[in-house]
Amino acid sequence: LNDAQLLNTTLNLSGYPGDKGGSTQWFDKKRTKSVTSRRIVYEIDTMGGQSGSPVWYLANGRRFAVGVHTNGSASGNSATRINTSVLTNLQNWKALGA
Predict the structure, then answer these.
(1) Which residues of the chain fall short of a pLDDT of 70?
(2) Cβ(89)–Cβ(43) under 8 Å?
(3) Exposed/middle/buried for 53, CB within 10 Å: 0-12, 13-18, 19+?
(4) Which percentage of the chain shows pLDDT scores above 90?
(5) Distance between first and last Cα of the chain
(6) Please, which residues bridge with residue 11 across strands?
(7) For tag attachment on the chain, is the N or C end more exposed, with fewer CB atoms within 10 Å?
(8) The whole model's pTM is what?
């Protein structure tokens, strides 16, 4: 998605927050707060232990990953945006595990 599309999208995040014991999966969704070429900021509720969780949007019943949750902050939680270089890394890492 381009910046404008991403800013008008509801993002989803699902993970295993440490404050809930880290053994049960929790989900939250909110609108995008801001974007840069490398980062997506949102106010989705997260906690330690959820780093690495996918950030995605839902369209026509399908999930599309746009980021990887990496940071929690009072100014907004954020993800590393999946751009071309991040996608290449993900594909290379996947191939190593095949």
Answers:
(1) 98
(2) no
(3) buried
(4) 67
(5) 28
(6) 30
(7) C
(8) 0.86
Give, in order, the Cα–Cα distances in Å from 54 to each of 28, 50.
12, 9
**Helix and strand totals (H; E) in the chain:** 2, 6
Q: Is 87 helix (H, G, I), strand (E, B) or coil?
A: helix
The residue count for the chain: 98
Distance CA 88, CA 29 (A): 26
Q: CA–CA distance from 87 to each of 24, 65, 70, 82, 94 (Å)?
A: 28, 10, 16, 6, 10
Q: Which is it for strands 62-71 and 10-15: parallel, antiparallel or unpaired? A: unpaired
The type of residue at 60 is N
